[in-house]
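Worked example

This section walks through a single chain of length 412. The input is the sequence exactly as stored; nothing has been trimmed or padded.
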Amino acid sequence: MKKSHHNFFAWWIFAACCLISLVGFGLLVNTIGLFFEPISKEFRVGRASVALMTTFQNAAAAISLLVAGKVMEKFNLKWLLITCFSLIGISLLTMSMATSLVHFYLGWILIGICQPIAITLSIPVLLSNWFNEKLGSVMGIALGLSAFGGTIFNPIIASIINGFGWRVGLISEGGLILVILVPAALLLLERPNSNYPAYGTTKANPQATSLIGINLRQALKRPIFYALAFAMLALQFVSGSVQHISGHIINLNISPIIAATVVSAVMLGAAAGKISIGFFLDHFSSRLTLLIYAIVGASGWLGLILFSNKQLLVISGFVLGLGQGICLVALPYLIRKQFGNKDYSNILSIINMLGAFAMSASVYLVGLFFDQTGSYNLGWIINSAAFLVSFLILAVTLNKNNYSMKNKSAKN
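Given that input, the structure is written out below as tokens.
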């Protein structure tokens, strides 16, 4: 009987995380740009004024990450998710009745506050709690679905906006969040127990459901913490600069259609990268996996510099997208493996906070590089270097830290 409980709950948690990624990332995060033009026309303001709501959202999310880990430790994650998804859905519904941009700014600030707990941290934290085996694979698949969510929901929401207006589009998004994610959260169980053990629990490993590892204060004393923090900062900087790829392609006097195709290739590559890197982390050396994906990511960004052929640019976009798997899957995976699950949500939130600020800064800085040089090449060189330097720092510290982590876990 325990075996069926084991299978049902661990894999239900995985299915719920897939829904959060597909709808949370895919719908909420990936479709916001569709509303810029119609809202701009409705209120007769510039695109920059409308896009400012995403700046407020990202800033609120970055600040929220400072305390999100602690909040997740003190309160039941199930009820936190129900609250956050409800607030996000209601916020979207109220914005459909907006009469000024201030309403959008306040609404997206509230969404930004809820987003780290509801979407950014919930998936790796839940999977970390429930999977002692195959963690890389399930994390890669779940997080990889965000790109497919964007592919699914973008044309749907675009059609709704074109046919019925942006207000109905917001009602649709809010309704989907409330109808899909709130019920999914209601059926969650935050941690395994004796009746519902984590995947990978055996008689030989009875402590698989217990909290093993070190806390944030102890993690701060380890070189690997700073290596992971640097890698998150550097590679989230890379992620933020993806928004400039279409501008780079157009700057090469290539049509906007090809530019959009390259960006689509990046999204597909990111999905493939997240899914595949999780599998390789489960089955091969972490350092070997990181080396391969770092070389792949760096090569993709260099391809944008070296190539002007349309087909090669599309391939470069896909290849650099593959490298995104390091930032989005490998780093959360390695944080769990290096520090355990004792204080995982807190450590992950602090490291993610650095990445959130880096992502926000990169959009501005890469644009500034272009303004100063007339080319995006400097930004792409920095991105390539970010992959290689991050790998070198991680490879050294992972090698030094594995033995001490095992000793620490044994003491606990």
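What to look for: Residues 377-411 form the longest helix (35 residues).
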